[in-house]
Amino acid sequence: MEPPAIERLKPEDFLRLIEKSRQGKLKIYLGHAAGVGKTFAMLEEAHRLKNAGVDVVLGWIEPHGRKETADLIGDMEIIPRKKVPHAGSTVEILDVPKILERKPTVCIVDELPFTNVAGSHNPKRYLDVQELLLAGINVITTLNIQHLESLHDTVLRATGVDVRERVPDPFVLEADQIVNIDLTAEELRERLRMGKIYPADRAAAALENFFTENNLNELRELALRETAAALDQRPRPGATSPTDVSEKIAVFISTNPVTTARLLRAASRMAGRLNREWMAVYVRRKKEDPLRIPSDLQRQFMQNVQLATELGGSVTVLESEDVCQALLKYCRENDVNLVVLGTTERHWWQFTRPNVLEFFMHHAPGIDIHIVDPNN
User: Fold this and answer.
1) What is the pLDDT of residues 191-205, one digit of tens each?
2) Could you tell me the domains of the chain?
């Protein structure tokens, strides 16, 4: 079956966006694996913009030893990387202050998911990009689909790869343009065999591990689907909002960092699909007061709170000894018509708690329940 047609936006479309707003615009070249051609396509656009008279600079480009990509840099202006000491050596990072001082119209920043070393201007590169956008600088960047935060568990199940560097969904979905760079699994594997992605000594191992036909097909399908979903969520001229847009989604969270993280990602993805607001809700009883519980559990809870926020949700902490009634009351008062729960909920709450799933099934008419197995 042929993949769904993905809307292609011309470089001049991005140029029109640049001219319309004072806040910077974000364009993302999305792919499903290294070597599909994201950086190459981004550099081609940089040259087209430059030839159109736009002030373009390269803030960060990573050719990865690929001659064709390196040659395409050509005469583009490059902002020198900042050198910082780290672990007894010197590493290079994106020089955000220098770019802000230079203030180009468009800055090219490769590898959006990158984690900066300690002492950098920001801990994550997407935060660097966000700072540039807020300063009115337009940014074009690259991203592989497996680095999307809400897809972490899906990618882990499909490929066995635990992707550590991730970007929050809201940041990506708010991009002004997303262009999917598509390549079939066989075409990509052939590029790998020809040495166009990794050196020969790495290519053979890559073909047997991450770059298997099954992995690439799974990731390609995710990239196509996510790009189509992002385009579907864009407002269309003359379109009216759904009548139920005020209805919300709630996910009930605990201090358990792993299973709760999976539920948060599931809620975030569902909210994105339905174009709904979502929130994470925690009911704290007296014995779970922050001063009484172990510090590691409190730290895990705060990690869950941070993840929920990064995924685009809000967090509410309720105080009550009756967990089920407190949750139901909250849902009724806040237009929540869908709740996300885990199948093993009695066990994944860190503390001994009543069975919220069973309670909502019997006492919450009008509220739909989406059950997620947090162990898969």
Assistant:
1) 999 888 888 778 888
2) 11-232 (3.40.50.300), 248-372 (3.40.50.620)
